[in-house]
Amino acid sequence: MKAPILLALTLFLTACDSGPVNHSEEASKALQARDYGAAVSHFDQALATLGPDSPERTEIALARCGARAHQDVKAARAEFLEIAGSEDLKEKAYKNMVRNLFNAGSDGLLEAVIVVDAGIKKYPDSEGLMAYLEKLKAEAAKAEGGALNKALQGLGYS
User: Which of 30, 28, 68, 62 lies closest to 47 in space, CA to CA?
Assistant: First the structure.
């Protein structure tokens, strides 16, 4: 008879001891471990707990886009631009997203062109965004006429 009571008590204390999961913290841990799928999942759960007017909402959504860039660069870019269309993002947000797209590999470079262009249109004097544009041009020159070069030319950056 003691075993079921002890088991129940142990389960009860374990459940009480664990407390709520801080999904933002767990997402940060997942990012440090380069587990981008887990990070996106935790960011989604964190967003689900916030109200629509929560001051943390935009910051968490942007962090989610950065993690998503390592899974699906096109979706990450689209999500970022959707946020940028509805929020007054700082220049730093554009630079962070471009950096995440650069770090995502060659597929991210094409999407980085679009984000750099949006950022430069909003912050035309941004030295950081102009530096990323120059890096994109250098990558395009290596490819000699590839898709990256065409994307830059299509937006008027030759």
Answer: 62
Three-state DSSP state, 84: helix
Cα 136–chain centre separation: 19
Q: Write out the two tokens for 112.
A: 């980085």
Backbone angles phi and psi of 18, in degrees to 5:
-70, -30
| Tens of pLDDT, residue by residue, the chain (158 residues) | 444 444 343 444 444 444 456 888 888 888 889 999 999 999 999 999 988 888 889 999 999 999 999 999 999 999 999 999 988 899 999 999 999 999 998 889 999 999 999 999 999 999 999 999 999 999 998 877 789 989 999 999 87
Percent helix, strand, coil in the chain (nearest 5)? 75, 0, 25
Task: Determine which helix (DSSP H) or strand (DSSP E) holds 39, and give its type and residue range.
Answer: helix 36-49
Distance CA 81, CA 107 (A): 17
- Spatial CA neighbour of 139 closest among 125, 151, 155, 128: 151
Question: Which 3 state secondary structure label does DSSP give 152?
Answer: helix
With 0.85 as the threshold, say if the pTM is over it.
no
Domain spans in the chain, listed from the N-terminal domain onward: 22-68, 74-158
Show the tokens assigned to 121.
């249109």
